[in-house]
Amino acid sequence: MNLQEFLDATKHQLPRMHVVCNDGFMVSIQASRHHYCYPRKDRAAKYSSLEVGFLEPFDSKFLLELDYSEGVGSVERDVYGFVPVHIIETMLNRHGGINANLVTSQLMAEELTS
């Protein structure tokens, strides 16, 4: 599953579920009128930049490539705004891509409980 497919599959979620990559890396990727993204609107067909929040484990290589940190909280919990999609895709690919099976099962579980 690529990033655009994830955004399309989770566009009804605000906030979106956390992204879990195939190597276990977990990150928050958000986009809505309330997030640091472009366009800054809910359910846009395409975003050119997104908000990224690190959860665990911290990807220090990714941090070195960026200058988007809000500087809030510990380094591992920083939020990065208006991060270009191609940089996020590079980060996700370094971690084996998005775990499509996990995303699908979480979305199915959500449908069953709603």
Can you walk me through this structure?
The chain is of the alpha+beta class. It has one domain (3-113). It is built from four helices and four strands, in the order H-E-E-E-H-E-H-H. It has helices spanning 3-9, 60-65, 85-94, 100-113, and strands at residues 19-20, 26-30, 49-56, 79-84. It has a four-stranded antiparallel sheet with strand order 1-2-3-4. Strand 1 (19-20) and strand 2 form a beta hairpin. The longest helix has 14 residues, at 100-113. The protein starts with a helix and ends with a helix.
What is the structural class? alpha+beta
Report strand %: 15-25%
| DSSP strand count | 4
Q: Which residues sit in consecutive blocks of at least 5 with pLDDT less than 50?
A: none
How many domains make up the 3D coordinates?
1
Overall shape: it is globular
- What is the count of helical runs? 4
Distance between the termini: 24 Å
- The portion of residues assigned to helices is 25-40%
Strands side by side in the biggest sheet: 1-2-3-4
Reported for the largest beta sheet, the result is: 4 strands, antiparallel
Round the mean pLDDT to the nearest integer and report it. 85
Secondary-structure element order, N to C: HEEEHEHH
What labels would you give this structure?
18% strand, single chain, 114 residues, globular, alpha+beta, 4-stranded antiparallel β-sheet, 32% helix
Reconstruct the topology from this structure.
Layout: H1 3-9, E1 19-20, E2 26-30, E3 49-56, H2 60-65, E4 79-84, H3 85-94, H4 100-113
